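Appendix B, Record 12. Input sequence as logged:
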Amino acid sequence: MRLVLLGLALGLAAFACSPAAKPKPALQADQALPSEVDDADASAAAWAHEGDGDGGTGEGGSALAASGSMQGNEEGAKALISQFVSPTADHAALTRSLKPTSADYKALFDAATAPKIESAQAKDWESGKAVIKPGDGQTEVKIVSATGADLVAWKGAAKEFPGGYRKIAKHLVPTMTFFRFKFTKPGEDTGTAYDGLAFVNGHWVIASKPYRALDGKGGLDEAAGDDAASKPGKKPKPKGKKKK
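Logged structural output:
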């Protein structure tokens, strides 16, 4: 019994003599909280899943870009056309996506004119000549718009369109908005211009220079030009017999 009591006494003495554990210093107000391990791959995956709109496929950026261009206004037109100035742009594929259907032509022009314009522009689409492409160094996009009614009245931004629109204007759907756009170099106003862009039946299409169809000509393959395209051209001299 004495041995047991002696052992207990020695144990208590050893515990009392052991150094006490140092308390952890308090966190200062300006000291950062302990951070977790930063996993870049995990963070990127989480961000893509959170931001995309395609069920978490990780292609959220493309989905957002597409949704931005699917607004039938000037902002949507600029989002769409800005894709053409990308260094990796596939101009032919982007242009093909703007090919109008028969229903689209009928929504843009009156019943008598729509098939004529569709037929005249069909050769350009079928031959692959219909390609929208900016010139070298043309990285900026400028856009104006006018309704069919504005083009008939030839007022406001309508005057920025090629002069041929004065001839075709009465055949345009009055409430439809048409866009003219051009690619320019930074700081410049003139560049490579196209027209006839419109948002119809829920998507963008282009029927460039439709007035050429009235003369039996195409449109898009001859569409590129500079800002002077809106100025009326010289009137052709009347044909007649030459004086001897």
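The CA atoms of residues 154 and 215 lie 21 Å apart.
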